[in-house]
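Researcher: Re-running this chain for the archive, since the previous output was lost when a drive failed. Same request as before.
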Amino acid sequence: MKIKMNFYNNRYTIRVIIFFIVVVLSSCLNYKKTLYFQDDKAELPAPNFSQTYTLRIHDVLKIKILNPDSESKEILAKEESSMNNSGDQAYFLDYYINDSGYVDLPIIGQVKLIDYTIMQADSIITLKANDYFKYATVDVKLASFKFLALGEFQNPGQHFVSNETCTIYEAIATAGDASEYANKEKVQLIRTLENGTKKIYKINLTDYSSFTSDNYYLQPNDILYIQPQHAKVDKQNIIYVSIALSSVSLILLILSRF
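Model: Regenerated structure tokens:
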């Protein structure tokens, strides 16, 4: 009877050892999936920048109007009382595109900017400003350029971009780079189109194809998602399996006492 029990115990021990070996091997990180740029390319064509972002309702713009004309200097200073001595000839504020597609500027009034690019908006406001001020110069930036980083990032969440453009790799760097368990072959970029529909791009960061794709440049409100490798799930499963095996061992130990 004792020999028979030892036989069963040995079989149980061997199965546990084999199980752990299989789990550990399956949970090892895939080295290739952790690397960027695995192709041996010496030159790449220019990225596709055809999808220029056009302004939409509820976008926020930073608009600066600079007027060197001393006769109009005091008018602008009254509109922006918080300016210091070095900037009393300009105002640089956030302006919200309302539901009708307009921004309401001091002195100039309402200007329609919806469906225009940033460069076109700059030109439109410059023409309007020159009707009120001599030699006025305008600078327009998109203040509401944000994207969402989900999945295997070091710093996931919502991030804001101060530039007018942002590439995929700039966005990844802003989110603290990909984590050690990131599967760089399985990346998704989810973009909201003007009609409200979603377009999903599948990206492989382990080669250079993303440099020449339409999704190399992010657009405001894009969602960037990096899937985890199976190794992360397997590692979590090992913890649960270890707890379960410890419980089983404890039960067998108690039963062996009887």
